[in-house]
Amino acid sequence: MNKLIAGLLGPLLLGACAAVPEPDAPLPWDAQVVQGQLANGLAYRLVRETSQPGRLDLRLTVQAGSVDETDDQVGVAHMVEHLAFHSRAGGDQQLRQRMTGLGWVQGRHFNAVTNYERTQYLIGPPAGVRQAPQALQALADLAFARDYNAQDLERERPIVIEEWRGGLGVAQRMNEQRTASQRTGSRYPGHRTIGNEAAIRSASLASLQAFQGRWYLPNNMVLSAVGDFDPKVMLAQIEQAFGSAKPGKLPSREQRELPLDDTLKVFRLQDTQSGSNQVAMLFRSHEPDSRGTTRAALRERLIDRMALAAMLDSLRRQPREPGVRSLIVQKTLIGEHSAVLGIAAAVEGQAHAQALQQLLTEIERLRQHGFSEADLQRERERIRRLGDKTLANTAPRTFEQWVEQLNNAAVQGNAVTERQAIAERYLDVLGSISRSDLDARMRRWLASPDRVLQVSAPGNTEVTLPSVAQVQALQAELAGRALGAPAQQAPVAAARPKVVMPPLAAAADITGRQVFPEQQVEHWQLSNGDRLVWLKRNGPEGQWLLQAESSAGYQQQGAPAWRLQMAAQLALLSPSPGMDPQALADWRQQQRATLSLDHQPQRLQLNLAAAPEQFLFLLQSYRMSQRVSVDPAVFDEARDEMLARLRSRPGDVREQQERVQRTLKYGADYWQAPDIASLEGLTVGQLSADWRRLSGAPVTYYLMADITPQQLEPLVRQALATIPRQQAVASQPALQQPGQRREDLAIALEPRAVLQASSFQPHAWSPEAAARVSLLRDLANQRLKAQLRGEASGVYRLRFDTELNADTQRIESSLSFTCDPARVDELWAMAQKTLANLQPDAHWLVAERAEFLRQEGKRRDDPQTQFKRLVLSDRHWHDPRYLQTQALLPEALTLPELQQQALELFPRGNQVQLRLLPSPTALEQAL
């Protein structure tokens, strides 16, 4: 399925091509792609890409997914993907064992994924092209061996159930409702890729093998390869691995299309834990195939995209009625010929009737008047600009771009053509597209008699669904009226005063300087108490980075954390007195001078980035943020939104879970989320006073910019050194309390247990120790998955995270997984034992050190990483030595030190665990 969002037209120009022998022949494949078919029908696409020496990426796409299952095969396509790794291809070892025996790690070097329409197997062997024969044979065996047995199925079945269990939740429930309404009458709603618990438990070995035998045919597969290889050698290796597979006759694919009728259907989409609030009308239809690269096909696609973009622009220009927040349109392609056009109105509060009225009015207005000549010219110019930009881009595709292009081609059934050729052809047909073409396309979409009305409301909000007769009567009434033409200009808001930044103050002083020539770093002390730490090189893509941080975290005595965070967030949206908040937001957007807030318990941090020519605007934007009070209008809007959310979702499970977890971990709920009474009693004056105290704390600036001291000094002296500061704010990091604790919380709406555990170990921070912890994190995840998933077949989703926190001087670790509630004790004990016995060995270290060296080479060239290390170094030592010593990090990866540090990752004495268990209602529904 491909979603085409109006306005995002870039994908139009990402194909490619060359000269054509006939007037309307398809464009040929990019000359860098070696493509064809084996005698058995297996399609292959090969790209030699040498920018990353030795690297290899292989992807086998099987054009079969869950929608291709028969009625008695629910969830089987996905289970085949799992069981394929149990195949032995006539040998003694399962394929997963064979691959891990080669040093390949699942998730890093090999993986697989299934959706409605296809299954993909991915391998990127760590030794690259040297392991191409083994990787190709593994893919062929995954596809064709089919010699897994009943014992393998029973071993894997609990893992698939846990994958299903782990995916449960509000997002899953709302997605199921959307699919059931959007694709009503089709096979899709009843064939979710993961299936359901009953289907997973009852799936038979014969059913899996039948599905694989029916669809896993070489003439139903595409093999894509990108890497540092000789295409002739690679093709010979493909023939060796895949050539003996027998082709077969493919079944019909009509089940992939939507069956249409001529009725209107009305659906409610609602969940107690969801905040979705909108009304949408869907128009379902079958469309002629416009895939391919002939001029006729590209012209059809261009009409589609221009009409869709013009609809979106038109809807956005229309004045919105009270209760309507926005109007949008999007189009979804399903199967080969089915499409769904969705036009939606976002609702404020309970104004669903008003939103439906405007939604149907704007649809009828478009139907009556069509597009204007200005709409056509706007879309033509947009396509022309994108085409010209593509023609001017002569840079070769990167390794990652080639992988993406071949993958898209395999999924969509397209050729990969040269970018310039496809752009030329789009531009060639652009002039033949008229306003009547766009009008006809839009009216064809809106004339579809197969319609679906979706009405969603947040949480427990009461909403009355309109009947089909009521909607049809409203449509008929609107069709009988002569509606005014669509507005050609967006509603003009009251004229906003032009944003004029106050002039910079008379320069203050730089009272101290310290130079570190080897690291190209300078420290400046400013007269207002602030500091500047300056790394003399540019940031990513030539930008200049500025990070401003102070001790004004949100964990302080005398003020709730939520209020301090709210004060900081709203202050950054607030202008100086007399200035309009939206005008300031527009100015920041135009000048690319936006501020990003990262508010932590012990630190307030603002992140800014700009091109060198925008740096002054960046400083002005930051300077204003430090001197404002919270704007009353900004305050009212934010408070009203928070109150509406609290009232619509009084039993939010996630909020209850997080509150209990904070209390359990830290000894008290330092956050103390606001209740309705607290918000109703809150004043803008309180938040302004909070912000004055937060913004008054002295700041350390971290600057990454290739600029001369002569250029930088006047900017710093005027824009930064003149900001008045007060005393530092006393805030503290959130620290887990010592000791073992556990709490069970039986409120979940899903029939599963979610275990969340954490622990800590005091440990002095150093770059070397932090690197060791990072490596051990990956080892711990591998071992935990091997035990809890591989051995016990008890989990699917598991995450272990650990870091050496420079602020707390602790190794802080967390573990989470979902499982059957009946097995949580067993799996928790297994996890504890695995982590307590975690010991790296020499074989593992050799492979990990090689990978570390490869990644570290990238990190030293990465400006963002170097900036982060500058900050860490200054916080810890008040100098930039980390930039000098980072070259020695690999030497710290010694086996004795890693083995010692492994013992400190998850100490039992400080383990705290929260178990989120099913509510009694959830347990009853699961029976």
Structure description:
The chain is of the alpha+beta class. It has 30 helices and 24 strands. It has a 7-stranded mixed β-sheet with strand order 13-14-15-19-16-18-17, sandwiched between helices. Strands 1-10-11-9-12-8 form a 6-stranded mixed β-sheet, with helices on both faces. Strand 17 (596-600) and strand 18 form a beta hairpin. Helix 9 packs across helix 11 (373-392), helix 11 runs antiparallel to helix 13 (419-430) and helix 24 (767-791) crosses helix 25. Mean pLDDT is 93; it is low at 1-21.
Structural class based on helices, strands and sheet pairing: alpha+beta
Mean pLDDT: 93
Give the radius of gyration: 30 Å
Which bin fits the share of residues in helices?
40-55%
Helical segment count? 30
Beta fraction of the residues?
Answer: 15-25%
Write down how many β-strands occur, each being a DSSP E stretch of 2 or more residues: 24
The main pleated sheet reads as: 7 strands, mixed
Neighbour order of strands in the largest sheet: 13-14-15-19-16-18-17
Shape: globular
How far apart are the first and last residues' alpha carbons, in Å?
Answer: 34 Å
Low-confidence stretches: 1-21
